[in-house]
């Protein structure tokens, strides 16, 4: 019997590298695929693609798998980046990783892997898949501190039925240990954070190149102008740093201290940015939300019931009730008001460890 062929996305990072080794240990015929998703400024100091490819190729060498590079930059531009810019231009704060997983890593990549004769694909994400009577479920990783099911919530049955997540059962600390033991060239490489095409570069400078924007008034809830914003796209709800106000006498406490200012609301029509003082200002708290563009792992919305949700990645699950509204919209009601619920981000639903899917906060 011939071995099952698994094509794994290798990014040059430690997670996908160890995943490739684990699959080989499990007896699969493993092929590595390095995805190039961005090429607008490859030569800039912030773009690590060239180094990542070198790392991925040297790991493939150590692990003993073939690797090829594939260019998805035009698909990425059309399906992920264009949407990212549209959302920012509209004053929302999108999460490109969610779209990248749905459109590139588990669509363009999956299609390409099938042309290479793959039976299955794999990535270094921290998540698990459970197959149960012809249905595939997406589960949180055993290591909850690293769980990435939030970013994978748009995956469907067809995608999950062909996907392996070798790191789902393993704590991150163990992954580093394996990398050191194997003497992988990238064992000590730090994890990439942030948005893949922006890297470590200053965000505002990056957006400046692509978006038109105009400055406007910064106001308090009472309608008092306290400053000028540089363009609504550059602010996110709950933001505290970089607002550029502070130290105004009339907003100080009796003891001379003053509460921090936060971005609370964007009025797109009138180009006004509203800011409030104090972390727990009522304008920053939401008892409910509406979401659209829903995507459900099982193929249909969960019925109205008590579940838990995340409205941002680094957040504990919070109790909520879902009320589906038509095919692609739903409402969530929280038991406790949630802080800085941000349009454009994903609201992802869970039933215990099972990720049910979610939508874009409207």
From TrEMBL:
Residues 95-97 are annotated as: Interaction with target base in tRNA. Keywords: ATP-binding, Cytoplasm, Disulfide bond, Nucleotide-binding, RNA-binding, Transferase, tRNA processing, tRNA-binding. Residues 288-361 form the tRNA-specific 2-thiouridylase MnmA-like C-terminal domain. It catalyses: S-sulfanyl-L-cysteinyl-[protein] + uridine(34) in tRNA + AH2 + ATP = 2-thiouridine(34) in tRNA + L-cysteinyl-[protein] + A + AMP + diphosphate + H(+). ATP binds at residues 9-16, 35, 124. Its EC number is 2.8.1.13. Residues 146-148, 312-313 are annotated as: Interaction with tRNA. SUPFAM superfamilies: Adenine nucleotide alpha hydrolases-like. It comes from the Bacteria. It is an enzyme of class 2 (transferase). It is found in: Cytoplasm. The active site is at 100 (nucleophile), 196 (cysteine persulfide intermediate). The keyword rRNA-binding does not apply. Residues 205-277 form the tRNA-specific 2-thiouridylase MnmA-like central domain. GO terms for molecular function: tRNA-uridine 2-sulfurtransferase activity. PANTHER family: MITOCHONDRIAL TRNA-SPECIFIC 2-THIOURIDYLASE 1, TRNA 5-METHYLAMINOMETHYL-2-THIOURIDYLATE -METHYLTRANSFERASE. Catalyzes the 2-thiolation of uridine at the wobble position (U34) of tRNA, leading to the formation of s(2)U34. Belongs to the MnmA/TRMU family. HAMAP family: tRNA_thiouridyl_MnmA. This is tRNA-specific 2-thiouridylase MnmA. It comes from Duganella levis.
